[in-house]
TrEMBL record, chains A, B:
It comes from the Bacteria. Residues 449-545 form the STAS domain. InterPro entries: SLC26A/SulP_dom (IPR011547), SLC26A/SulP_fam (IPR001902), STAS_dom (IPR002645), STAS_dom_sf (IPR036513). It is a multi-pass membrane protein. Gene3D superfamilies: STAS domain (3.30.750.24). The chain crosses the membrane at residues 21-42, 48-64, 71-90, 96-117, 129-154, 174-192, 212-234, 254-277, 349-374, 394-424. CDD domains: STAS_SulP_like_sulfate_transporter. Keywords: Membrane, Transmembrane, Transmembrane helix. The keyword Transmembrane helix applies. It is found in: Membrane. This is SulP family inorganic anion transporter.
Length: 570, 570
């Protein structure tokens, strides 16, 4: 009997074990505070974040291809869940939890479906500047939203105005014990980002101990704060995690949510999209040093299964986390066995240790979120984009501001629209260059960049630097006619089509009408360097016959055909 | 004192007068039934269609540039108004009318704003197949929706299911007199499209009489039906237009609608978009034989003013009508004076003759709509698109079906999304060609189309036939890496960038990472024929320095540099 096993397990080598074990332990130390904290960001009970770290880790280990991808709750996803559910106006906490679980199930089902339909290219609807703007603004929202819990009151609001409102309203209700624990924890964690590695290095610590001290610090801070609460007798004087149901979650299909499924479809789609983009980027980043390529459709399937699994064990949507996955890889994870060890540790905590977490102060959890997320508020991409391409910089800035102002859910829609609109606007006003022959050869160049180029009297050679389609057909025709109206002595227009990669039906109709208009005015329209695919489309539309005899293989062939024969009478 | 006057008026020539007068009269004969009928399509009292034909004609004559454009109520616009207002659930007929007037005011204000912002390219978000599918489906919906009024009961529904429901529900309530007048009128008008011109030609009629008989036939049919109603004593036995308020409408800013303005903003935007695309196409069609070009921004301003005017005199949204404008041009309109004459005739009818219209049977009006709109149910573009470009054909079919099923308002959104998505999907999977040197020259061609091409051992020359951007950067990288993995002996990859018209920040980051990955694997990445604008962006991003010395002016220069020096030892 042959059992289906993932590749890494079938060919497992003993020497991989040490790395996998240490990485698995380390990621568990990181995942426990993250899971608890991100569940709170999503407005859910803290244990939901741990539930969402069980089946997904197992399913990715079985189905995923990335060796160190660590799937689980993530900050931006949690904020998206909070923003989506806030709009539904769900009455009870139970309804809210059910809706969050169904968001995981629906987005999982969508991802699976997209994977089966091989829609991996969906990740490409977000341009990098838009994604960077989205991530930076989301991170800033998360940091600001945690100011409330840091001071001992509830976080609400998923947009800047709502968060500021909330802070304004509750600022008077701050809890001294919460701040006295939270603020030092925040400062310690913040300092640890740069100071701790140097200190540990100076102390000549290395190996696993160094890793546990530097990477496990959030866990150590949480443990320390619980000891302090007990020692100072502050139990019950500040917001704490409280009693967590003991034991592992049951695996079951939950009851339908009060809001109905239809209201969750669109939010689930955007959560699926963001989670997929996030997880695919992590997988690709991890694949580079190992010289592997990532199959986007396979990632869709694996992530879809993970989210279905998260929902079935009562968790909320999950994705591959960048920080966790890098920690996993750096700590020596060789295979997905590391993730299975992480899962086993979290299961053990839930089964036997959940009582330990009850006294955990929420303000210290808030401090771990703020310290983890703050480095993602990066504005450097804005500067980089500004130097390369203004419109990309504008896309970043607009997405950033819209996410802050409207919240992550509207922001992501705006981001997709801005990405596409910016690109289409650029293609709607194509660059056109007048060409001339470089002396002593058969090459043609832009006469404005190479003034030494020769031209033929009465012949205008124009290169259109864009595919022709409905978005620019009208503009190209108007620009050509305006150009010809300005240069009245032209009798032949030679269009160089080397940069026209595709034409659509709208552009074909434009070319035909342009030819008719020019013929009426006594101007010949000729084409050069028409690409194979473009010519095929012209053949299909019956336009090719019309141009027979007027299409040149190269611009130089056109030049030679259009050069007047030498007059032998002189 | 110099008064501002439009060009055509300042340079008016006496010989233009005869054509302008006959065209103005003829268009009035066409516009009266159309105005009444399209108001009914929009669910409004019939006189609203005449009100919408007053100020807009004057304003276009003053501000517009097209000599024969005839602005007024149009079929598709009316259907859009009906579909948009149906969703608002407005209680009274007065609220419904107010909302329709505000749709005209809002879409007028938007068009003016777009014109001031020079957003004329907005017309280009709809590809021709999508627009054709939209128009054909809308026309079919209008024809079907008029089956009810033809049989003497009310038309409701703006989508196929709603219209079929309505017919099913009321089929028993048909009115015999309505059908007895409507059906013969429909058959007569339908026959007149092909039979009448031949007949009149055989009778050797020509000039104005022929034009009035053929173009004024709808008006004659309406007049005849009113005489029949009086003669047969059917007054009150079938649905009729009823009493129309006597006199011209007052010019005033109406009260705010019951729905609030916010609910009207999105419908007004789509109405503005469709009206603008429609009116711009008409203007461009009219400009071709006169060798004029159309300024899209100017058309935006003029159409915006027309719609504000329509709203201020109690009308609904208007646009340039294709049939009317062609009739206007063919009947000899030389200037916009023709439209002023049309307006004067409609004003006269409203002022002194509105009582004449009261007995007009609605079933005959329905017949004029069906006869006018049915020719627009054209499916030929589907066949043409199928032959040229399958995805354009699919875009047509999907838009057609969605408009039928969901109605015009959702259909237009779907149309825009389909237009853009189809184009982006094509650009997300760029064509790449391996190039070789054509023997005896310096030109390179696709080795698959030209098998005689030579290649260099260890050198892979690839031409990327698409601009590089976020939508395809990932795919291009994966495709290149897969290609290189398959051909293991390659030491140099030469990318020919002649067809790469633009790169964005996402693609720049991809190029940089690709270069790093290839360097690790011992493969050199070189570029050839990088375009000026692309190189500028690479310079701005600091990527140009990285590639210094590895960019060739032409593919042939790269070929020469990569050809191994001859080994003199042998």
């Amino acid at each position: 009997m042959t059992v289906w096993l993932p590749d890494w397990l079938r060919h497992y080598r003993q020497e991989w074990l040490a790395g996998d074990v240490s990485a698995g332990v380390l990621v568990a130390l990181l995942l426990v505070p993250q899971g608890l904290a991100y569940a709170l960001v999503a407005g859910l009970p803290p244990q939901v974040g741990l539930y969402a770290s069980l089946l997904p880790l197992l399913l990715y280990a079985l189905l995923g291809r990335s060796h160190a991808q660590s799937v689980g709750p993530m900050a931006v996803t949690s904020l998206l869940v909070a923003a989506s559910l806030a709009k539904l106006g769900l009455g009870s906490a139970g309804d809210y939890l059910l809706a969050a679980i169904w968001l995981a199930l629906l987005s999982g089902a969508m991802l699976l479906l997209f994977g089966l339909l091989r829609l991996g290219f969906l990740a490409d609807v977000l341009s990098e500047p838009v994604l960077a703007g989205f991530t930076a603004a989301s991170a800033l929202l998360i940091v600001l939203s945690q100011l409330g819990p840091l001071a001992g009151f509830r976080a609400t609001g998923a947009s800047l105005p709502a968060i500021v409102d909330n802070l304004w309203l509750h600022a008077g209700n701050y809890s001294q014990p919460a701040l006295l624990l939270g603020l030092p924890a925040l400062l310690l964690l913040w300092w640890a980002r740069s100071g701790l590695p140097r200190l540990l290095h100076a102390w000549r610590l290395h190996g696993l101990l160094l890793a546990i001290l530097s990477r496990g610090l959030p866990m150590l801070v949480l443990a320390g704060s619980m000891l302090l609460v007990a020692w100072l007798g502050w139990q019950g004087q500040l917001p704490q995690v409280g009693r967590i149901p003991a034991g592992l979650p049951a695996i079951s299909l939950p009851a339908l949510p009060a809001s109905g499924l239809a209201a969750l479809v669109l939010p689930a789609f955007f959560i699926a999209l963001i989670n997929y983009v996030q997880s695919l980027s992590v997988a690709q980043l991890l694949a580079i040093p190992r010289r592997e390529t990532v199959d986007p459709d396979r990632e869709l399937l694996a992530l879809g299964a993970c989210n279905l699994g998260a929902g079935l064990c009562g968790g909320f949507p999950v994705t591959g986390g960048l920080t966790r996955s890098i920690v996993n890889a750096e700590a020596g994870a060789n295979t997905q066995l590391a993730s299975l060890i992480t899962m086993a540790m979290i299961a053990a905590l839930l089964a036997w240790g959940s009582g330990l977490l009850a006294s955990l102060p929420l303000s210290v959890l808030a401090a771990t979120i703020m310290a983890a997320v703050a480095p993602q508020v990066r504005l450097q991409p804005l500067l980089q984009a500004w130097r390369a391409d203004r419109s990309d910089a504008i896309a970043f800035a607009v997405t950033f501001l819209l996410v802050l102002w409207l919240g992550v859910d509207s922001g992501i829609i705006a981001g997709v629209v801005i990405s596409l609109a910016a690109w289409l606007m650029k293609s709607s006003r194509p660059h056109m260059a007048e060409l001339g022959l470089l002396p002593g050869g058969s090459h043609f160049r832009n006469v404005q960049r190479y003034p030494q180029c020769q031209t033929l009297p009465g012949v205008l050679i124009l290169r259109i630097d864009e595919s022709l389609y409905f978005g620019n057909a009208r503009h190209v025709r108007d620009a050509l006619l305006a150009r010809l109206a300005a240069e009245r002595q032209v009798h032949t227009l030679l269009l160089v089509m080397s940069a026209v990669n595709r034409v659509d039906v709208t552009a074909l109709a434009m070319l035909q009408r342009l030819d008719e208009t020019l013929a009426e005015r006594g101007i010949r329209l000729q084409l050069a360097e028409v690409k194979g695919p473009v010519w095929d489309v012209m053949l299909g539309a019956g336009l090719a016959e019309r141009f027979t005899g007027r299409v040149h293989l190269s611009t130089y062939a056109g030049w030679q055909a259009l050069t007047p024969a030498p007059d032998f009478h002189i």
